[in-house]
Amino acid sequence: MARSIADTWATEEQSPYQGHFATLGIAARRIPLRAAAMMRRALAHTRPEISDRLTDLVREWCRELEKSYAPRRVPVSAQTGLQVRTMVDTARLVCAPAK
Asked: 57, 33 in Cβ contact below 8 A?
């Protein structure tokens, strides 16, 4: 896990929003899950026994995430729209003339 995430948890005031906690929980799991999946893929041809163990681990972690967070599909168009709005809003803030 990134040190900055852990530091944020230690110093941040509690949010009344459930989504805030879900985001932090998912962020804490995303890095090791992604690392295990990438390692599994990299070792698939050279170390299949390790790759198989990693496959089981990735599946287990994904099942845990599904149980904890009940994910739902968000259309790519909605995700892209959010990212574009975020970039435009950020550009407006960064490029706004100083007052």
From this structure: no
State the sign of the Cα–Cα–Cα–Cα dihedral 25, 29, 31, 37.
negative
Q: Look at the block and give the residue holding tokens 């967070």.
A: 69
pTM of this structure:
0.59
Determine the distance from the C-alpha atom of residue 36 to the mean position of all C-alpha atoms in its chain, rounded to a whole number. Answer: 14
From the list 95, 96, 37, the residue with the least C-alpha distance to 65 is: 37
Spatial contact of 26 and 67, defined as CB atoms under 8 Å apart: no
| Residue-wise pLDDT tens digits, 58-92 | 999 999 988 887 777 888 998 899 899 989 999 99
- 18 close to 70: Cβ distance less than 8 angstroms: no
Sign of the CA dihedral with 62 first, then 56, 40, and 2 last: positive
Distances from the Cα of 71 to the Cα of 10, 15, 37, 47, 63, angstroms: 26, 21, 19, 32, 11
